Structure formats: structure tokens, C-alpha cells
Amino acid sequence: MEKKTCITFFFLMSFAVSTELVYGVQKPGEKSFDRLKLFIFGDSYADTGNLPSSTSCSWKQPYGITFPGKPSGRFSDGRVLTDYITSFLGIRSPVPYEWKKLEEKWIKNGMNFAYGGTGVFNTLVDQPNMTAQINFFQQLVQENVYTRNNLSSSSIVLVSLSGNDYGTYFAKNSSLKGLEAFTKSVIDQLVLNLKRIKGFGVQKVAVTGIGPLGCLPSLTASTSYQNCSEAGNNVAQFHNQLLQQNLQRLNNETGASSVFVFLDLYSAFSSALKLKQNHPENLTFKNGLKPCCLGVNGEGSCGNVDKNGTKEYVVCENPKQSFFWDSIHPSDQGWRAVFWALKRSLPSLL
After folding, report:
1. Which chain regions cross the lipid bilayer (predicted)?
2. 350 pLDDT higher than 60
């Protein structure tokens, strides 16, 4: 699906991305981060560098041009949801699982197990699904990298599920006939995952709802980025409805009202885009539903180059004016707007 030059091998360190810039360094006089740990499971909305640099365009130009100035494995021109959540918590972004040996001194502060393109089930991307990600976590607990006592006293989990399971479903099925049953199976598996995560002793588990899928540039391109797909948004809304019902049930079972916290990305995206009746009424982002980085002449995608190294994408003049960075992912500024919309629900994580 990607051009050959998009999967050219790069050694991780050849990017010369400073981990100090991307993940932060404790300065003299700053408080230790030992007390609070954040663990992240999910997909590209939360991944900060787990996908292989040999295959993922998140490690290629122009990703990362806003922050840290070079590709850092994030599917954005800058920060992603993970980074904004950690800014609220007052901690550094956890080390990606694939970096654990490079950043050993930081692993006690949590870890990011999210891999772009994945879901609760296997997807079109051959990377660890959520069950496998939790297996990685379990292994570290068994090795006493993280103890259950530690986890029960000072840990928060962020679970990101942005819709890759549904993308895979539609790639394999042309009919909506089995979608309702499939959605229920996604939620059932997600609930099993959440119970398993809670079983390690973590105190809080934040779970993202799915954003308005029908407003992704990959779907709005057919209308010149003017109209959202009602059918796509309905898929997200049904998923979110079932998810909220199940989170409420899980909280009732635990005897606490806010162990499992729902992060309403659908409302946050809609608020940022100022959507009204599926049409963008945008007061903040000049480019509305149009991504900043997109393929030339409707072909290719952000980061693609041809066999001669010629760019097959264009980048807008000012990424801050675009909510979406590429055909699926928000820009740094887009995530900032989402974060502000979510801020009222974030104190429940503490």
C-alpha cells in the first residue's frame, strides 16, 4: 500500500531525535516522577514511537515538523493525545515499549504499549493488538519491573481505540448487515481487556470513545472536505453508546463510580471542529476538515515519495490552521483543541 521509499530502513538513532526534547528530562530541583505512573494501550492516537522505523511513515518527513522538529514516531506534525494527557498530569510522556532498553532509567514512570494501526482484534496492520499489548505489560509485572503494590498506589491507564477494527471490518465486508453484531464483539473484547488491566491493581482506567469517523479526511475527501459522512458518524455513536453502558456497569461492579473513566472524543472533536448538522462551521481552524498534509492529485499519502525520492504529498503553509494533520490523525493544534474540550473530565483521573 505504501511506496517502496516509504519503507526504507532507518536505524532508530539515525533520526537524531533527542529523547530529551521528545520525552523530557528531569531538571535539578524538580520533583521525582516516581509517585505517578501512566500506562498506555491502543493505537496511533496514543502511539509515541512503537511502530518500526523501517516501515512506518510516522518516522519520516514531514511528521514531527512542529514538535520536536523531526519525526519522532508520532502520527502528527507534533504531539498526540498521550502528550497532552501527560501535560495535564504533570509528568513526562511514558517511554514507548520498543524503547524500554534505550530508556531504562525512565521505565519506572510508566510505559506506552500503543501501536499505530491496531485494535482490540487483529487489523490490516501486522502489529500487536490490545491483547498482545496487555501481555507485554503482564510480563513486566511478572518480572517485577512493576509490582502490584506500586500499581495499586500510583498508576493510571489510558486506553485508546480510534476505529481501526471498523476500518478492517469495512475492508473485508461491503455490507452493514453484520455491523451491529461486530460492534458488540468489539465492546465485549474491550471490556475483557479493561477487566484484565484492572486486575493488575491499577487505580484508574481512562478509555477513549471513538471520534466522528465520518468526519475523517479519508471519508470527506469525496466531498472536497465539505461534508461529514452520517453513516460513518453513526458507527462511532453506536460504539460509544455501548461503551458507556459497559463502563457504567464495570464501575457498578467495582463499587466505585469513577474507576473507569470515559473520555468523549466524539464530543471533543465535534467541539473543536464546531460541527453542525454534519457541516463544518469552523471558527478556529481555517481549513476545517481538510488535512494539512495530503497526497498529490488524490494519490499517495503524507510522507510518501516515489522511487526517485520525489515527494508525493504537499504540506499546508500553517499546520496550526488545520485540525487534521493527515487523512486520519489530528494535528498538534488539533489535539490541543481536543485536549481543552476534554479538560473538564480529566480531573476524575486523579
Report:
1. none
2. yes
